[in-house]
Write a structure and sequence with these properties.
There is one protein chain. It contains eight helices and five strands; from the N terminus they run E-H-E-H-H-H-E-H-E-H-H-H-E. A five-stranded parallel β-sheet has the order 2-3-1-4-5, sandwiched between helices. Helix 3 packs across helix 4 and helix 4 packs parallel to helix 5. It is globular.
């Protein structure tokens, strides 16, 4: 029996949007890890990434994720949470979360991007969008219990 639901996926897949609606429907709590990071550091994600670097951001994200102890919540981590096996272990085994992957095709991912620099997306130096996409979908598929195709869900990001 699952105690929480954790939504994973690429940026613009609708984790926060769908998470809020699912929490309302299920009368459960909603936890947005990106918002928690911004509140803790009093900066937007893209500022943290540009000022402190990718590794430090992933550390902040992991620290918040692994500090969670909750029941009956919808959890929306950032898209980069899949880089932390410790966080994913925590969601699945400690929090007993059902991990749902909100899947986007590459074309839809590319179409939804408005301003990658303002969004606060972790992308390794030298990577292009296709490399980012391939790396992330591999990890999302590895960790997910269920996959939902969100290509046809417009206005969810």
């Amino acid at each position: 029996m699952f105690k929480n639901i954790c939504l994973i996926g690429l940026p613009y897949s609708g984790k926060s949007y769908l998470g809020k609606r699912l929490a309302k429907y299920k009368k459960s709590g909603f936890i947005d890890i990106d918002k928690m990071i911004e509140l803790n550091h009093k900066k937007e994600l893209h500022q943290i990434i540009s000022e402190e670097g990718i590794n430090k951001f992933i550390e902040y994200e992991n620290n918040i994720a692994t500090s969670l102890y909750c029941y009956n919540n919808i959890i929306s981590p950032g898209g980069s949470i899949v880089y932390s096996s410790e966080s994913m272990y925590h969601f699945k085994n400690i929090l007993k979360s059902k991990i749902i992957y909100l899947k986007l095709s590459f074309n839809e991912f590319e179409n939804r991007i408005v301003d990658i620099n303002k969004r606060g997306i972790i992308m390794k130096p030298g990577y292009d969008l296709k490399q980012l996409y391939n790396e992330r979908i591999f990890l999302c598929e590895k960790y997910s219990d269920e996959t939902i195709d969100v290509d046809n869900m417009k206005d969810i990001y």
